[in-house]
Amino acid sequence: MIKRWLLTIKRSFVDDTAQAITSCFIVVMFGLFPCFFGVNGYANITWSKYLFLLVASGLYFFSLLIWWLVRIRRQEIRLSLCSLPGLWQKLSPVQRLLLGYALLMVLSALASPYPYLVWWGEGRYEGLLTMLIYLAIFIAVSSFGRFKSWYLYVLLIPVCLNIILSLLQLHGGNPLSLYPNNYDYFDGNVLYSGQFLGTIGNTGLLSAFLCLVIPAFICYFIRQHTDRRSYALLAAAVIAAIIMFRSGVAAGMVALAVGILVILPLFLPSRRARWIYVILIIILLAALLLWLWQYEGDHVGLVGEAAAFVQGKADDSLGSGRIAIWKETLQLIQDRPILGGGPDTIGERLDLYFTREVDGIPTGYRTKVDMAHNDYLNIAANTGIPSLVLYVLALGISFVSWLKNSRDVAVLICGAAVLCYCVQIFFSFSLCITAPLFWIFWGLLEQSLRQKKNAR
Questions:
Q1: 205 phi and psi, to 5 degrees?
Q2: What is the Cα–Cα distance from 268 to 263, expressed in whole angstroms?
Q3: Which of 192, 243, 348, 443 has the CB geometry, 3.0–4.6 Å to 138, for a possible disulfide?
Q4: How far apart are CA 147 and CA 162, in angstroms?
Q5: Which residues partner with 49 through β-bridges?
Q6: Domain boundaries, the chain
Q7: Model confidence pLDDT, tens digit, residues 21-56
């Protein structure tokens, strides 16, 4: 299989250099990036991943630049101001919207009262530079990339690695010495803040990673189950889902549930079957709401908090304090609604702390909130409501196009991954550890949709 991949890449360099360069980048990001954790394990994993992203994306863009300059030298491309309108016309609506989103981010950074923060960001490296890298990855992949089924088998490598590591860690192990000071998973939120699994880091980020790969693997298996190799993807998806549930990340569980509800009717054979499915789901949701309305248990955990929300008894502590964070974030949006405070400046503007009680520590853990824990609110607070509108419009167009063209295997797989990620990030935030993979999947979805449109 590896030999065939190498031959395919070699042939691609001859046939389409930009596509081959993009394939190499995707292989690196799917196969190596999730596995990389640096030399200090979880202690410095965000910086290690960010450095990897800078190097990989920098080499990718530099390679495309060289390819572009060579084509100009050979007069295969004629560059002039007159050609710019033609280039704009070749862009898809989603690409245009995201370029507008990039422009608003730049304006937000220039107008920010925190010029010392906007370029790199405050601690999480989600400043203007990183956001522009994400968008450049999307534009490049959606222009030059092509979805290949073997990308999923490349992605299977880090998934299997994370499954093995997570299972060992959930049983008290510390393989690869990822936990510093001989800590383990069960010391999380006791001897150190947060909980960590696998080579991704925080359990919430591992959940975001799995929300990309699980639906992609399952959709490929359903459409290509005659291929015996696809059973490896199914097995990995099932075990990964078990690990996600074991880690107790509610955002991931909700995202997978929503994903299944939305994706399942796409496999039904007729419109009548799909309508029956929709009616059954409405009935089941109504029954669920009625049950939550009458729920009398403690308002803790996923079910208890959902019941509190339905019964109108939700307080600021709901969702690990997310209600309180969202309220504060909405106030920040009102303060600067057009351009926000600047990329990744919300931590500077939020004056919100959470204290977690820990046995043996009288003062507990006191943590400053530096993210909205809802990426859509985060965008509005950082770069303004107009930028959020453009971003959501781009996602909406992709979602509708995905539903209309889901019979195409590439469209189905990439769209399923994007959908689940977008649901879980409603309760989470963008970070350089998982966000690049989302933008690659979105870019492959957009390219697959364009390719299908051009084939008509």
A1: -75, -35
A2: 10
A3: 443
A4: 24
A5: none
A6: 2-290+369-455
A7: 999 999 999 999 999 998 888 989 999 999 999 999
